[in-house]
Amino acid sequence: MVNVIVFVPAPEMLKPVERLVERMQSDEVHIDAVHCFGTPEILHHLERYDVIVARGITYGKVQELYPEKHVTHLSFDGMDIMGALLQCREDFHPNRIGLCLKREEVQSILGGLEELCRAKIRIYEVTDEQSAIQAVDACQSDGMDAVVCGGTVGHICQGRGAIYLYPHSLRDAGACSGGGQEYGDQHQYRADQEQYHPYDPGWE
Asked: Which residue has the higher pLDDT, 126 or 137?
């Protein structure tokens, strides 16, 4: 029996992922799906799992704690990020978007993303819980109209009533059992109904 745990990045994704993994259970593979904010105590009690699926801060912490285990990374690719930014543009019409991810995930395509979204995009490096808090602080002090981010930053934004959008990329959830199933969705959160003005190319 192979035991697998999938750390779901956002709470609203937990039920759909649970339905997905329920169909993937078998006599050979058992899969648990959980959502946890930050680096909770559960990360220190994963000895019974053979495969761990996670992304972002959770992925880094799991790798550090269990270097001998098979850890699968749910990474964002350019299409995931572009899709989230386009939906952000359609839903919120922001002048300025804070992009809170690892810099190497987006730096090479930043210019094209700004042109596509007709908005100024500023990258805020996020590598751990402390940098996630600092990134949200900076987004708010810099006047970002909306934030595109991972689960930890999204959780902080939600607590502060800030507008954020999470670029879902769970097609890799099927990888824990060798499957090729894809799951993708976009969820966005509006702190209020304020409408933003069209992109001002003069903003710096």
From this structure: 137
For tokens 């169909």, name the residue.
23
Q: How deeply is 4 buried, as exposed, middle or buried, from its count of CB atoms within 10 A (0-12, 13-18, 19+)?
A: buried
Alpha helices in the chain (DSSP H): 14-24, 56-65, 78-92, 110-117, 129-141, 151-160
Between 145 and 167, name the one with better pLDDT: 145
pTM: 0.65
Structural tokens at position 100 = 């809170």
Segment 102-116, tens digit of pLDDT? 776 677 778 888 888
Give Cβ neighbours of residue 102 (< 8 Å, ≥ 6 apart): 125, 126, 127
Q: Are strands 2-7 and 146-149 parallel, antiparallel or unpaired?
A: unpaired
The structure tokens listed for 25 are: 């259970």
Side-chain-facing half-sphere of 77: CA atoms under 13 Å: 6
Cα-based torsion angle of the residue sequence 164, 52, 62, 12 in order, rounded to the nearest 10 degrees: 20
